[in-house]
Amino acid sequence: MHTPVHASWPNQVEIYLSMVQRKVVSPNDFTNLTQVGDRLRGFEGRYNATAQPFQWRFATSDLDDLLARLDRHTTDHQEGSSARALLEQAAEQTCESQQ
Length: 99
Prior knowledge:
Layout: H1 9-25, H2 33-50, H3 60-77, H4 83-98
Helix pairs in contact: 1-2
């Protein structure tokens, strides 16, 4: 199964199960468990045949541009902490919680 390499394995499982929910289980029109199993196996086969490695298109420079725009917006509309500072603080807290 090809999943984003940036995510932890529980995140990858959640991503995959979300796809299964949206593409296989809903709508819930099954008359028996055999149909559920058949649809799940069919999805698995199609997914494994067509899945490709995830390619990021959002570079560090794109993040810098976004943060600069957020800073300008924050400065124009509010006083207080900048968007960059808030995002950096959130990133630091995320990194600390993952360790």
